[in-house]
Amino acid sequence: MLRIGLASLCLAAVLASSAVGCKDNVLGQNPGTGGSGGAGSCASDLSGTWDVVATRAGSATGTFAWVMTISATTFSMSAPSGTLLYTAGATKQLTWTRPAGVVPVAVTNTSAAVNSGSIPLALGGNWSFSANDETCTVNVAAASATGACQGPGNSVGTGNWPYPLPSPRHDRTYSATRVSQLTSQLGDFGGQWQLTNGAGANCTATVEGNRITATCTNAHPLTGALQLTLGNDCVASGTSGGYELSAHRR
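^ thats the sequence. predicted structure below, dont judge the formating
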């Protein structure tokens, strides 16, 4: 589940591809507004409800649209294929609901302080996600992140994983390492990063100011260049793997 999390350069990560947590123990870093439509400038707070679209030109089936909601206590991502919903609290709850039924995902977290800037979610600490004999573990620190999944078969089962995000492979370690730090509205995520899937795929990413750029090799379906701009006017746009990406906050 690392990709929902790294898809967490939060909005970037979700637009492009992680494990999602909320700021409970580290709310003092960025309290946000906790509501949709009522937040301030997106340079300082991405809280709210977002309409997100990824379109591949010339493909009749190449358009994906979903609604994403972010607050200090909730993360959700909803599309016709299903709804992913995380709720913080004394007992953390995560569900993946699709036409075939509801999949409850057991969540545990040992939190660690990570300054995520304008993102009202915290990925910091050690996370575990378990459902239907599959378990993914993720560790996120200010300058690194690692994740791995275990279970039957080659990849995380489609019944446990929100389509159309690529499913992680079992017995493979995904990692991201910050090699230099840069100023960014995303706090500790600002910098130059090296990412790998443990099987020959590599990405070099730069997170600076309100922009994210990346180049990936041997990383199907993410091979190629990604660029994303998070506007102060709460409009995001970019490209990734042949897709045009766009999002705006309601």
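Confidence is low (pLDDT under 50) at residues 1-39.
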